[in-house]
Every structure is written in C-alpha cells, then in structure tokens.
Amino acid sequence: MARVVVDVMLKPEILDPQGRAVQGALGRLGLVGVASVRQGKRFEIELEGELDDALRARLEELAGSLLSNPVIEDYVIREAATQGAPA
Amino acid sequence: MARVVVDVMLKPEILDPQGRAVQGALGRLGLVGVASVRQGKRFEIELEGELDDALRARLEELAGSLLSNPVIEDYVIREAATQGAPA
Known about the structure:
Two copies of one chain form a homodimer.
Chain A lengths: L1 E9 L6 H12 L5 E14 L5 H11 L9 E8 L7
Antiparallel strand pairs in A: 1-2, 1-3
C-alpha cells in the first residue's frame, strides 16, 4: 500500500489572484511581513499495491495532464509515509 | 526569508466528491489499483523575515480560521526550504 502526494502549483510566472487575495487577508488579520502567497492543489493518492516503475510512469503522465494544466501549472510527485500526518 | 507551506485537507470522515471524481478518472485513464484520492489545498507563504514563535502562533491561528474551515478541514504547517522545488 503506497501513498503518493501530488502537489500542483501555478508556474512562478503566472499571476495568482487567489493567492494575492489570501495575502491581503493575512495582512489585514495581523500577519505582518508576508512577501507572497501562492495557492495550489494537493492530491493524496492511495494505491492498493506498491509504486513500481510502470505505475510511476503512468502517474507522471496523468499528473501532467489530468491533475494539472501543463500550460500554467507545475506538479511535483512524491511518495509519502503510508500512515499518519500529511508529508 | 522563511518559506512556510500550509496543507489543508478535508478531515478523513468528510466525503470528498472531488477526490472521488479524480479517482474515477484516473481509473478510466489506465491507472489501476487506486484505493482512494483526496484533494486539498496547498498554500506557499513567503515571509520577509524569519519565522519566530510569535509569527508562528499567529500563523497557526490564521491557518485554522482563514485558510481552512475547522469544521471540515485539517491543516498542517511546515517550514520549507527557501528556494527550489516545493517541499
């Protein structure tokens, strides 16, 4: 049983109005000194078996097409601890 | 300059229809053996200074109120490497 985390974030050169809104709100609510906020998506995928090379290759393909929009987003795939807190 | 990542996920007991839809799509697109998918949010926050105890406490408060809905979501805060790939 493997657990895979895929983080999808807007590419650095893409404006993130949602992140800017959060940044403004954090400032108004008293968190000073916030230089920037970017908001993205996080997918936690549990697999029934282990993460072998074939599965990893297919997951890479799908992370770059289904889970993210390659025109504006980057993704990072990593294997996480199977149980407990998010890694 | 500190970089903080806040991951916000639905609590385990809360149904995640968006994650279920992604799980179904992954299966249809040829990724077999996916036991579950949960989708959440990821915030990357860059601070102008260092993350001291006072700032961390305020950030904890805001992560539990502004960035997440404590009724249905859990959050995890961690300090990340300042530069490079998402941690």
